[in-house]
Amino acid sequence: MKRLSLPVSPADAGERLDRFIAARGGISRGEARRALEAGGVFVDGKRCKIAARGVHPGQQIVVNLEEGGRDARAVAALDRSRLLYADDDLVAVDKPAGVPAQPTLTTDLGTLPELVAALLGGPVTIVHRLDRETSGVTVLARTKAAAAALSEAFRVGGPEKTYLALCARPPAPPEGRIDAPLGKDAARAGLRRVDPRGDAAATRYRTLRAGPLAALVEASPETGRTHQIRVHLAHLGAPLLGDARYGGPRRIGEVAIPRVMLHARRLELAHPITGAAMTFEAPVPEDFATAEKALLP
């Protein structure tokens, strides 16, 4: 069991959260406490780490025992070939799929800043986050001044980001701009949905190739909302392959899809200190290219 959904009944009123999870979830109290400490427990959609918190009738407790359905484990060291650029202020890397940009629901180990710091021999600060399963270009700062400048640039939408997405079908229409606000999905912790009351979000996109089994789509987000490309393309009828949480298939015939098929192909921005125009590109990874070749021969 990787995820538990536990409603609180009147008989549970006042029970400690860790004891409630253990009793109703059929797991040990130690497992319940580990899930709490890892940040994998949500009470009515809000994360809670307080084991002694009392539960109340009508609450919905969601417990994530494994991150994304996978065992939490340390990530291998970052290969130097992943380093796209580095100077005294800025570093750009080609993030492998599976590496978290920040601590996840189940582990604080193997994050991208830690791996880049180990590679360069000095601390770095993440300023541009990719989802764990997304591969491709991301940048980190090596100084406080660079971190502040980059954070502000991403906040106002200065950098130009270009992604490749392998979708179940082409979006409708096949090319255009979707302007659809995004908000939290109250029914599914950690996910987003199109919501007129949500945060403004816009994405430009165009279909590059399409066939009966898949479509290759280029997407350029104008804003930086969580899961933006994934939700927007799914909203247009084109869920990403491997993205089961937003309706994407994990298998097409004999072709298994190993992850969410999203790759950050290119990033254009101004250097945080000098202002010089910079462009970084990450090659299409093997798993993405293999799926594309099999489904769009």
Structural summary, described in words:
This protein has helices spanning 17-25, 29-37, 112-120, 144-155, 228-235, 286-295; strands spanning 3-7, 41-43, 46-47, 60-64, 83-86, 90-95, 125-126, 135-141, 160-167, 175-179, 182-184, 192-194, 202-210, 215-221, 251-252, 255-256, 262-270, 277-281. The protein is α+β, with helices and mostly antiparallel strands and 297 residues long. Strands 5, 6, 7, 8, 9, 10, 13, 14, 17 and 18 form a ten-stranded mixed beta sheet that branches. A four-stranded antiparallel beta sheet has the order 1-4-2-3. The protein starts with a strand and ends with a helix.
Q: Please give the radius of gyration in angstroms.
A: 21 Å
- Elements, N to C (H/E): EHHEEEEEHEEHEEEEEEHEEEEH
Main sheet: strands, sense, barrel: 10 strands, mixed
> Residue-averaged pLDDT, rounded?
91
Q: Distance between the terminal alpha carbons, to the nearest Å? A: 38 Å
List low-pLDDT spans: 68-74
Tell me the number of helical segments per DSSP (H or I, 4 or more residues long).
6
Strand content: 25-35%
Shape: globular
Secondary structure tally: strands: 18
Helix/strand class:
alpha+beta
Helix content: 10-25%
